[in-house]
User: What shape does this take?
Amino acid sequence: MIIALYPGSFDPITNGHIDIATRASKLFDRTIIGIFATPEKRVTFTLPERVEMAKKATAHLKGVEVMPYSNITVEFAKEVKAQVLIRGLRAIGDFEWEFEMAMMNQMLSPGLETVCFMASQEYQFLSASLIKEVASLGGDVSSLVPKHVASALKKKGLSKR
Ligand code: ADP
Assistant: This one.
């Protein structure tokens, strides 16, 4: 049984993240979306909010579950017995950082393999931070996030529409 951990801050989950989780669910027996409690970047949504939004967005995906974590990712991977770490790679900007992280994780936890999915074309320029910026300026992000995420952005006052 291959268990994959897809870690990130998911602040909030976007259609780009869901696309990666959907594709991963077809390859691995279990895909755990690990939501990191305290990322370095400032988060907009609380941990329970990020977990709830991700759960709702992926409830239809077989073998996909959502779990919060607050320790180092490689330790959480051990806890959940994941053999694979999943990351998404967009054409611009992700590669160098993901490569560094993969090398560090390989050193910290030999045998834990990082598998990168190439972002789908339609989500290449989609990031949670850009969505928050656009929503805060009143832009329509409803085609880029699930409905419940769009309304959560509105509730947070991040969308003026
Ligand atoms: P982090 O806080 O680690 O940057 P994110 O929640 O922003 O995590 O993203 C988690 C993972 O999903 C990262 O590997 C990131 O590159 C990937 N990702 C983010 N947005 C997209 C997208 N639009 N398409 C594909 N992968 C994405």
